[in-house]
Design a protein that fits this description.
Layout lengths: L2 H18 L2 H14 L3 H26 L3 H8 L3 H32 L3 H15 L5 H27 L3 H9 L6 H12 L3 H11 L8 H30 L10 H39 L6 H5 L1 H19 L3 H25 L3 H4 L6 H29 L3
Length: about 400
């Protein structure tokens, strides 16, 4: 494997992982730890297994077919690619507004400036990535550096909080309770929406494709889930250390509360760095992947891809700064985003067995079984969640 390929594989893995680790990821992990305590370890374990199954299915089909997900969908059923592209861009835009807001909060914690001003600074950082000539390489390196920074800081807080490791390990395999909704939420939060395709599309753009590249694709996919899972496990341990001492987290900002209760004012500032890192990398990943879903439909978008990505970031920032977080859009897009994973994964599984798309490739049966399981479970629970959220949409 060449140094260039190694860098791209690592970059794709970190792009996927840091796209997943946004403000919602931090809050979600902390809240579930508060609710389930040590048994949350079991939820993480099951979700990691399912996440790997999802990523391997998706990335392998993208690599072998040498096509992006929307182009594969159009071959399965004409017009389907445009439909899932619409869903993913809508979800990506809505959640990018949340990412921009999270980055603004990170700057607010660090520098005391308003979240709106912080959001503009964070957007400028993300835009800078796409202003350079070799934006792909810069994006890969940026995701790696910020990912490692998050891991180091969360390791420190996890050590300081002194979690009962024995209990955490025991309950990971013998939980007191099994929360299916938590498992689905984690799977959707780690490989849902645009996140599923972030690394796969990045590898395709970098020229890593075809059956001969499958081993590299597998490595990068597992690595991506591994990085996201390490961050989640460390955050779980940090939060569990705080919760196990009987300390109460601030409902308004649970992850900040974990850092502050574990390490005082220093911990609170570290949370600012982690939140900023998580949010800015998610802004980059969301914008890049969302635009990758529409560039197949226009030669102009392909030609000016970086400028379209920059526009995507600026629109997200403008909406946050001028309107704040548009609650109705976020609720609807959040519910729709939950449906994207079973829909797109089902399309990928159908495509995996179409010779016109995959040639002589034979998809591993075990991966297909994993995929079907995730499609059925996520479709049922996401549909239920959507029905629950629709009344709220019209109550604001």
């Amino acid at each position: 494997m060449t140094q260039k390929n190694r860098s791209v594989l690592l970059g794709a893995a970190f792009l996927m992982a840091t796209s997943a680790v946004g403000p919602g990821f931090l809050t979600q992990t902390t809240v579930f730890t508060q609710q389930l305590a040590a048994s949350f370890g079991f939820v993480i374990l099951v979700s990691v297994i399912l996440d790997i199954g999802v990523q391997l299915n998706v990335w392998r089909v993208i690599a072998v077919s040498e096509r992006r997900a929307q182009d594969i969908a159009n071959l399965v059923l004409p017009g389907l690619g445009a439909f899932i592209s619409f869903l993913i861009v809508l979800g990506g835009l809505a959640f990018n507004i949340g990412n921009v807001g999270g980055a603004g909060l990170g700057f607010n914690v660090l520098l005391g400036i308003s979240p709106e001003t912080g959001a503009i600074l964070a957007a400028a950082m993300a835009v800078a990535v796409f202003l350079v000539r070799e934006a792909g390489k810069v994006m890969d390196r940026f995701a790696q550096v910020m990912g490692f920074l998050m891991i180091l800081l969360i390791v420190y807080v996890a050590i300081i909080s002194e979690p009962p490791l024995g209990e955490a390990v025991t309950k990971t395999f013998l939980p007191d309770e099994v929360d299916m909704l938590a498992i689905v939420t984690l799977v959707g939060g780690t490989v849902g929406g645009y996140i599923t395709f972030a690394g796969g599309h990045r590898l395709l753009d970098a020229g890593i494709k075809g059956k001969e590249s499958l081993q590299q694709v597998n490595t990068s996919a597992v690595m991506g889930i591994g990085v996201a899972s390490v961050i989640r496990i460390l955050l779980f341990l940090a939060a569990f250390g705080v919760v196990s001492k009987g300390l109460v987290l601030d409902a308004a900002n649970p992850p900040a509360s974990v850092f502050q209760l574990a390490a005082g004012e220093v911990g609170y500032k570290l949370f600012g760095v982690v939140m900023l890192s998580a949010a800015v990398t998610s802004i980059v990943g969301s914008a890049y992947t969302s635009v990758s879903f529409i560039k197949s439909f226009s030669s102009s978008i392909r030609k000016y891809e970086n400028w379209v990505i920059i526009g995507f970031i600026l629109v997200s920032t403008a909406i946050f700064v001028t309107i704040g977080q548009p609650v109705r859009l976020l609720i609807l897009a959040g519910a729709l985003n939950g449906l994207i994973l079973p829909l797109t994964l089902a399309i990928i599984l159908v495509a995996a067995y179409k010779p016109g798309i995959m040639g002589t490739y034979r998809h591993p049966p075990l991966l297909a079984v994993f995929g079907v399981l995730v499609v059925l479970v996520m479709a049922f629970l996401s549909g239920y969640t959507l029905l629950q959220q629709l009344p709220k949409l019209f109550s604001y």
